[in-house]
Specification:
This protein folds into 2 domains: 126 residues, 2-Layer Sandwich (Glycoprotein, Type 4 Pilin); 75 residues, Hypothetical protein ph0010, domain 2 (Dna Ligase, domain 1, 2-Layer Sandwich). It has 6 helices and 9 strands. It starts with a helix and ends with a strand.
């Protein structure tokens, strides 16, 4: 069974509803909800995951917060429990989300496959190894590391090519935009299983990028 096959639409609904309930409970009570045993039993395998909050807008959703864990270090239920709240209150790019805002926010969940180092002799080889709409990227050099999810070059009508995606991933790591061409920069790829709300508290669907 592939990672993609491990998660049904029903799983996605459970996870996103759990994330929303956890966020809203925290914003009201300043503490996370207790994790239901059902979630522990069903989602105990270790995965990296990101929770993304977008402000709902029919002309194109705008980012409101996104936090996650790259590596499969914790059980999935624990990751969602942690990063759902963190996406609402700890993303340094934005002020904390308010409980009133949650009426206008849609939640997106990205469950990650383990990152794999792209081994190349020439940086031009990245252009043949990376597929827009399939791969997310991590740029790493020394202590600096930045990640962009697979949906980033496609969402909001960006229509990035591979070089643009590589450049923005490097900038996310606070590296020069051409750092991907340097021998001591490591580039990793990963994939993501995606679920999202179509509207705030609305239908939850599998998100396909291609």
């Amino acid at each position: 069974m592939t990672n993609d096959e491990k998660f049904s639409i029903e799983d996605g609904k459970l996870l996103i509803r759990f994330a929303r309930e956890n966020i809203e409970y925290f914003l009201k009570n300043n503490r996370r909800i207790p994790i239901p045993q059902e979630m522990k039993d069903k989602f105990g395998e270790m995965f990296g995951a990101f929770v993304t909050l977008n402000r709902f807008d029919i002309s194109g959703n705008t980012l409101r917060g996104c936090i996650g864990y790259i590596e499969p270090t914790y059980p999935l239920y624990d990751v969602i429990h942690k990063v759902s709240v963190s996406s609402a209150i700890e993303d340094p790019r934005f002020p904390s989300v308010t409980i009133e805002e949650m009426d206008d926010i849609v939640i997106e969940l990205s469950i990650l496959t383990p990152p794999k180092l792209l081994d190349v002799n020439d940086p031009k080889e990245y252009l043949d190894k990376i597929v827009i709409g399939r791969d997310g990227l991590i740029a790493e050099k020394g202590m600096r590391r930045g990640l962009l999810l697979p949906q980033v070059p496609i969402d909001h009508d960006r229509n990035w090519d591979i070089e643009t995606f590589l450049s923005h991933t490097c900038m996310k790591a606070w590296l020069p935009e051409d750092a991907w061409k340097m021998k001591d920069t490591k580039i990793y790829s990963f994939q993501a299983i995606l679920f999202e709300e179509k509207e705030p508290r609305g239908e939850i669907v599998r998100k396909y990028l291609k």
